[in-house]
Write a structure and sequence with these properties.
It is built from six helices and eight strands. It is α+β, with helices and mostly antiparallel strands and 191 residues long. It has a five-stranded antiparallel sheet.
Amino acid sequence: MNDKELINAVRRSVDDVHMDVPAEQVVSRSHAIRSRRVISGATGALALAAGLAVAVTALVPSSHPGSHQITAGLPAWTVVKQSDGNISITIRQLRDPAGLQSTLRGDGLPAVVDLSGQPPAGCQNYPPISRALASSIFQPQRSGARTGGTVLIIDPSALPSGAGVQLAPTVSPGHIHVNIDLVYATPQCTG
């Protein structure tokens, strides 16, 4: 039996096999499994804490049904565009700031992500805003075992006209803090 005959025999043996599960569901499940298997080489303790966070979250029943859509997920960070238009950002590691920036822009948030803490070239700081306006745009950061990282929620509809967001994550022992500033939304700065 040559290769061609073998291929034809295998094809005939699976002609009656059909998949009932949509391909999108298979791909989505494989991404979820793969992302759980990726462990950062940076610190074993962080990986253990993230694993515990996932386990605790899975065991604790949700207080409300999931009404949001996941738009991007990576082990380093996750962006969730919620049904109310708010954008939830969970940062677990300071990795791939360009990918995070691209995802935020794709979800309609004029954003620049920079690890230096200074506005990048082409960006200018927006004038100071009131505390009330700031609290309507940004919900306080949370962190801990339940979230698996630092969580920030931004309401893009509350941004002043012509404003964008600069996120400048920094690390202190065992914690990621995100400095947030408003910048002028320009193509050179926030896309």
